Amino acid sequence: MSYNFFVKSNITFGKGAADKLPEILNGHGLKKVMIVYDGGVKAAGISEKIVAQVEKAGIEYIIFDGVIPNPTNEVVEGAAVLAKEANVDGFVAVGGGSSIDLAKAVNVLMTNPGSIGDYGGMNMVKNPCLPLIAIPTTAGTSSEITNVSALIDTRKVIKYVVIDNNIVASDVIADPEFTKTMPVGVTAATGMDAITHAVESYISNMATPLTEYNAISGLRLLYENLPKVVANGADMEARENMMLGCIITGFSFSNANLGFVHAIAHTLSAHFGLAHGMANACVLPYVMAYNAEACPEKMVDLARAIDLPLSGKLDEDKYLLAKALKDLCIKIGIRTLKEQGVPEDSFDRLADDVLKEPVLGFNPRQGVTKEDVIAILKKAYYSR
């Protein structure tokens, strides 16, 4: 068996890691950067700390703070115009997946022609991008170390991905201290996003021994520590373990890809603006139960990894993970689709769009039907 495993970013991890930013910037020989962040990062006072470090490096900068959840093509294109006019030669992205994904997408347009929509799909970015230093403030998306940028095409009403090794951040500064200001709901949703990445990449039909190892290792950390940080956001040991688990899991899914859960979540975000982590979480248990028919042994592996009590009967144990994930969602306050305002009469239209999602090609259970999608949406709508 032969396989590839791609890892690119230089990672600086731990408390005070942001102090290394001037050294990293100067190491790239940068003259002017765009600092990308959203309102939450600004409100938490994190942006001030990062700007101070950029100034300490003696580098010019411009700020783009217009990041929105589920960034759109229009926002990307607008930020790219500003970056080109300012002649920036690098980026510092601070925040969750939306900030880092947006910076990746803008970076594509700095060295490649056309509009960002031209690069949807896999391996479409032909020219290398500028240096990008990613500084996550959530422990969930793994965008800081993956080759993925997820965007919304408002004209087509779809969430799509740019997947290319050229867009991976050159450097990652992962400081768990930056996650402690996250509201409890964001902590829960982003944590479930990371757990989704772990389990979907483990059962992906593109999984390899290296991706499986990282998925299992990440899941153990995430499953154990997510309830702790939801209960006590000041638990810095648990915060550190969540950030570590998120990065480890990112190594897995950026190589093995994802599946049915993300196909549904992308569609929910495109149509109703649901936060990505919350969209994943509310359907995750039901998709895992659905997929258990195709990969029962792997479902047992995942259950064993988080110390669920096994009976030794495959037909029973293959569903243990799905039940445990449902219990976890209830415990940490994940809302149903009904509670998130998704109308039940939209399920037929949503199902049509889910079936168009490319990530379904990596799902272990193939042949997903419209009826399958609707059945899962109904469970995620009503079930507690």
Provide an overview of this structure.
With 384 residues, this protein is α/β, with parallel strands linked by helices. It folds into two domains: 10-179, 3-Layer(aba) Sandwich (Rossmann fold), CATH 3.40.50.1970; 184-382, Dehydroquinate synthase-like, alpha domain (Up-down Bundle). The chain has 15 helices and nine strands. The chain has helices at 21-27, 39-43, 46-56, 73-85, 97-111, 184-203, 209-231, 236-256, 260-272, 276-291, 296-305, 314-317, 320-332, 347-354, 370-382; strands at 10-13, 32-36, 60-64, 90-95, 121-122, 132-136, 148-153, 158-163, 171-174. The strands form two sheets. Strands 1-9-6-4-2-3 form a six-stranded parallel β-sheet, sandwiched between helices. It is globular. It starts with 9 loop residues before the first strand and ends with a helix.
What is this structure, in a nutshell?
With 384 residues, the protein is an alpha/beta fold. It has helices at residues 21-27, 39-43, 46-56, 73-85, 97-111, 184-203, 209-231, 236-256, 260-272, 276-291, 296-305, 314-317, 320-332, 347-354, 370-382; strands at residues 10-13, 32-36, 60-64, 90-95, 121-122, 132-136, 148-153, 158-163, 171-174. The chain is 50% helix and 11% strand.
